[in-house]
Amino acid sequence: MYWSITGTTSYLTQAEGVWNWSTSLTDGSRRHTKGNALVATEGDEAPSLVYYDGPVIGGCGGGSTSFYTYNSGVMLAAAGALYSATKNESYLTSGNATLNAFINGNALLSQENNNNGNPFQTSGILTEPTCDSSACTGNDNAWSFKGILMRGVQYFLDAADDPALTSLYSTWIGYQAAAITKYAQASDGDVGNVWYETTANQVYNPASLGMAVNAGNLAAKVGHE
Questions:
Q1: Can you give the residue ranges of every domain in the chain?
Q2: Which of 155, 139, 17 has its CA nearest to residue 73?
Q3: Which residues contact 47 (CB under 8 A, 6 or more apart)?
Q4: Percent of the chain with pLDDT over 70
Q5: Quick one: pLDDT band at residue 70, thresholds 50, 70, 90?
Q6: Which CATH number fits domain 2-221: 1.50.10.20, 3.40.50.300, 1.10.10.10, 3.90.230.10?
Q7: C-alpha dihedral over 110, 99, 167, 86, to 10 degrees?
């Protein structure tokens, strides 16, 4: 955040305002349905505590309820940054709730996914719902989304600096790094965009490699070699 660089109070105030708007679901007029669940049409936090794409601002925007991994990653990084700036533990509570829902799923997330379970996991391995099964056709920027999520998790856990909190997710983090090596890494060392199977239509490019680097950095920081 600019506040951490400049110390200008207005930047922190604005950041907290954006956070409050993004996480607010108190006004029923700002909700519509996806599957059997209510989601916000202003702000972008779903009742499951996972974030989705495409908020509406003053009538501008489509209110998309598509799920992408990076949506929650950005907000996890924000929760960590705001906690570092304010020491307000509500940001840690919120970030932990989002990370837990993202990894472990819950009934509301399944409802938001048309009752098809957690859209972000395939056998415990991080999955990009709109991209991994279709080689990101028409959505090339999605090759970097899982990396943004993993970087956001790192920023959040770094800011929390709480071994007990990190321990809740350490096994899952290490599993992602192991899955990348097992399923996504080619014989020449390059890494594809799909982490959960070797038969997928892998895409190899700098973005897919960057995703793997972010996952590896996070795994190393929490103690996996």
A1: 2-221
A2: 155
A3: 25, 37, 38, 39, 108, 112
A4: 78
A5: confident
A6: 1.50.10.20
A7: -160
